[in-house]
């Protein structure tokens, strides 16, 4: 099925839910992104800063670029001028770096705090206590160029749907608790980014507002040789 048809099919599935589709275009050529763009899609996700920069320079300027991968602090400066949303803020040091680059670019950079919800050690993320400490700290007052827009999480890579559902439900519960318990000019808790090609339907049922889907739309991931 063509890229545009896949996007149309997924958007139809998402009708009536809270979820918005982020088309994950990492490793994919510009032609496929253009195909999706010409059929009305605007939100694309990349997991490497350099690839994100390269594509942003050559593709239409009204694309919303989402940084969905693990972001190294020394790469923040490259995407800070234009990134629409950083999904994977997994350390306080990274948050401080984003704020520094936001100041240099005179803009507020929206971020999601990545929560470690999976059993796998390979996944990154903060735990609930670290997030609560951040939201209760003086540091929040210093982050004048960061907007904490919500949470992101990646479920365990498993065929056990009950486990995946429990992990997503836990993230949604934490989100609701934080949203009801904390208020601050730097907080704008509106988004829960959870769900990828293999588990997005469960994520949507558990309240996801953003699903990050790549292979279902663009086919198997391509790696450069």
Description:
It is a single chain. With 225 residues, the protein is α/β, with parallel strands linked by helices. It is 40% helix and 20% strand. An 8-stranded parallel β-sheet has the order 7-6-5-4-3-2-1-8. The longest helix has 21 residues, at 161-181. It is globular, with a radius of gyration of 17 Å. The mean pLDDT is 94.
- Main β-sheet: number of strands, strand sense, barrel status? 8 strands, parallel
- Helix proportion range: 40-55%
Global morphology: globular
Tell me the distance between the termini. 26 Å
Overall strand count? 8
Instruction: Quote the beta fraction.
Output: 15-25%
Could you tell me the radius of gyration in angstroms? 17 Å
Properties at a glance:
10 helices, single chain, globular, 225 residues, alpha/beta
Structural topology:
Layout: H1 3-14, E1 20-24, H2 30-38, E2 43-46, H3 49-58, E3 64-67, H4 76-79, E4 85-89, H5 92-104, E5 109-115, H6 128-135, H7 139-142, E6 146-153, H8 161-181, E7 187-194, H9 200-205, E8 210-213, H10 215-218
Parallel strand pairs: 1-2, 1-8, 2-3, 3-4, 4-5, 5-6, 6-7
In short:
By secondary structure, the chain is of the alpha/beta class.
């Amino acid at each position: 099925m063509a890229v545009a048809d896949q996007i149309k099919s997924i958007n139809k599935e998402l009708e009536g839910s809270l979820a918005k589709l982020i088309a994950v275009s990492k490793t994919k050529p510009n032609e496929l992104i253009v195909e999706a763009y010409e059929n009305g899609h605007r939100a694309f996700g990349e997991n490497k800063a350099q690839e994100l920069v390269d594509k942003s320079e050559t593709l239409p300027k009204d694309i919303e670029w989402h940084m969905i991968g693990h972001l190294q602090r020394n790469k923040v400066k490259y995407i800070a001028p234009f990134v629409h949303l950083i999904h994977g803020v997994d350390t306080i040091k990274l948050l401080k770096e984003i704020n520094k680059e936001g100041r240099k670019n005179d803009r507020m950079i929206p971020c999601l705090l990545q929560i470690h919800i999976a059993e796998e050690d390979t996944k990154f993320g903060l735990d609930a206590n670290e997030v609560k400490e951040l939201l209760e700290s003086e540091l929040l007052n210093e982050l004048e160029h960061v907007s904490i827009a919500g949470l992101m999480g990646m479920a365990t890579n498993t065929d056990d749907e009950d486990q995946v559902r429990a992990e997503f439900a836990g993230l949604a519960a934490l989100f609701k608790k934080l949203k009801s318990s904390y208020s601050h000019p730097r907080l704008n808790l509106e988004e829960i980014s959870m769900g990828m090609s293999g588990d997005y339907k469960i994520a949507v049922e558990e309240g996801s507002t953003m699903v990050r889907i790549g292979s279902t739309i663009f086919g198997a991931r391509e790696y450069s040789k």
